Structure formats: structure tokens, C-alpha cells
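Do me a favour: review this protein, sequence plus C-alpha cells, and tell me how the chain folds. Record follows.
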Amino acid sequence: MRFARGSPRASTLQSALEALDQALASGGKGRILKAIRPVLDQCQQVSPGRLESLRQHISVRCAVADLDPAKVVAAMGGPSRHDATFLRLLARGMEESQNPEQVVLACSMWENFRHAGVQEGWFAANGPEAAALSLHIADLLRRLPDGLLRELQASAWSRSKTSGEKTPYLFPEEMYQRACALDPHPETFAQWMDWAGRQRGDQAARVAQAWHKIRPRDIEPVLRLLKDAEARGAFGSALGYLAKVEQIDGLHPAARGARLRLVAGSALRHLQQKKPALAAEDLAEMSTLPQAQQGDGPAFLAALRFVVSAACGHSEQAATSRADVERLLGSGAAAAMLLFAVATASKQRAFGQLGSVQELSRTERETMDPIEVLGISQNATDEEIRAAYLLKVRECPPDRAPEKFEKIRDAYEILRDPRRRLRHRLFSADPGAPLASLFTDEVRPRRFVGHGPWLEVLKGK
């Protein structure tokens, strides 16, 4: 509020306003009530056109300060006008509070402001302003403790059954639905999706479906639907969503490698369902994918082909595939581990039984134990472990024997850390070792149980 310079009345009003501000800052209720009347009297004389605006601001400041409304009205000589301007001021004042009850009141005031704003011609009922208000209310509701919000919602449901009273401003989903209907913008849907993703059940999937229906070229809801379908094991639906992702943005990071993962999941599911013929079709599709020819992909395909062939009763093809796995991995132990993992994941464990540890070569057994890799004793000191590591590195440098060097380095990484070395010492005992080995100096071979890493590969990790 501006005043004409040199006006005594303007100076008096300015002093009265400062006194009221100081009273409000002090929190003294009696002092606040006493300072109200002089301000209004001076405003009536200096700037009567602004009197009602001042009364509304004073009402809101007093409401936020939790003063008795009746006493405030008495101090002002009557109530202020409760129009859209007042409702907006009150909502803004209440939402800045850390008090949950005042935040709830702010939501109610914003909803009332929306109605008043439409009635007074501030904006249209179905315009972007109404959408922004709905999103703002939903955001305020997220600040409330979950228990309090559920309690308020339960009370609202009870009132609606008896009196028909509607309180949509207490339900975030209704606010998001309204906002997206009025302003179907990706950012609006993204806020709804973010909220839904933190709720129980399938709310996020339902939001993604609504988003995708209205905006079929947006990739975010399709990615969410793909993720949910894969999590449910609905690989057919997931592949359908993947096709849409590829149509929208074939270079999206989520699209790369997803088809191989999903078709592999479909093959495993078909094997679980005793449908090896369908699993064979999945396998044929996987074989055409470039990603299946990279890294350990060929070995995995051979392992899957072994299980499919065995499930179909094609013993010769199964034997050929098993030999392919051993050839590609260069190790009977690694092949057994992969075959066991694939058979277990497809619930066909009869086709992936692990052989006896005695069938493994000395070299294969050594690659499974870091102690054996470095050629040290169980009680080796830190100095002995490091010395053995350096010796092995000189024997197998990375430029001449990269695979052996990797095994040596991995073994050293395990044993150099006292905590990991302790866990290895505690948990490497083999209760299934031959009893005769207790009476020999030969290092006892460990029973092979390590299919966990391959199961992680099957999960796409």
C-alpha cells in the first residue's frame, strides 16, 4: 500500500500497520486484537477503497495465528467478505503451516476457491487453472501423514453415505484424475504416476493404462506397462508393449536387450507350463537376435536348447547341446552350473542334475576355490597371500593369459579382505566330502553349489 508523501494521515496509517505487524509477529493475542481497530480506522480515512482488502488480509493473518474468529470479527467491527480473493489468501496462509490440520483446511479452501473463481469469472470450470488447482491439492495431501489422511477419508466416506456430502479434495486420486481430464499433459500424468507408484496394488498400472489411452505416443506409460507385465510373468503382453516402445523410440535404452530378456522369460515360462513346443519357438526367435550372439549369449542358448530338447524327448539333440555348452564355456563345471541354473529356472531340474564332484578335473576344482587358485594354505598370512598373488601374476600376466589372470585377481580380491577371507574360511567347509579325505594331505574338493550367478543372468541382471 502506497501513501502520499508528507501526509500526516498516511504516516499515522503506516505506523498503525507496522504496529499490527509487530503484534502478529509477537503472537500475543490480546495485543493483536487491540491493534486491529486503529488500522481499519486510519485506512477508512486515507484509502477507503482498500479497506475491504485490508480486512481480508487481517482476517487471514488472524486465522493463521489461531485467534478466535468471533473476537477478530468483533475487533474489526464485522466480518470480511469471503469471496475468491479471501479464499485464495486463506488457502495460501494455511498451506504454509506445518500443522497438518491447517494443511487439510488449505485443501478445502483451494477447492472452495476453485468454485468461487469459476462463479466470479476468474477462469473457466474446465480450464488449465482448475487442473493446476487440482494438482496443487493433491500435492498438499501428500504432505499429510498416511494415518491421518486415511482417517479423514474414512470419515468423509461415512458422511457421504449419510448426508451425500462430497469431499473430493481429501482423495489424491480424484484430484489427479480431474487434473488429467482437464489438462492431459505428460507432466500432469507423470505426477499422477509418481503418486500411484507409491501406493499399494495396481494403481500405477491403471494410471499407465489411462495415460496410454489418452496419449498413445508417450513412451513413459508403455514402459511402465511393460515392466508390470514382465513382473507378472505375462511375457506375451510384455512383448506387445515392447513393440510399441520400439515404434515410439527404437533407440530408447529400455528397448535395447529387452526382447532377448522377454523371449527368454517366455521360453522358461512355457517350459514351466510343460509346453516345450512353444519354448522351442521362443528359442528359435532368440537365435535370430543379435544380442544372443554377444558375451555368454551363445552358451545360454545352448543350455536352453539342451533343456528344450530333453523336455521334447530328443536325447541326441540334448547331448549335442550339452557338448556345445561345455565347448563354449571351456569347462565342464561351468557347463554343469549353467545347465543346472536353466533347468531349475524352468522347473525341469531332472534334466540339469549336477554330477559328482569327483567327475571334475583337478584344474576345474582349483578354479572354484580362491585358496587353490593362489596355491596357499587356509591359514596364510597377509604377506603370504600377497606374495602368492604376485608370483601368480608373473606366471600369468594379463597380456599373455587374460582368463587365468582374471581368476587370479578375483581370488586375491576375496582373500586380501580380512572380512571376506573370514567368511570364506567359515562357510567353505564341505560336509559332503569323502570321509577318506580326512586322513590324507590332499586338499579336499569342494562340493559345487554355485548356480546363483547364472540365475541372476536369467533374471536379466
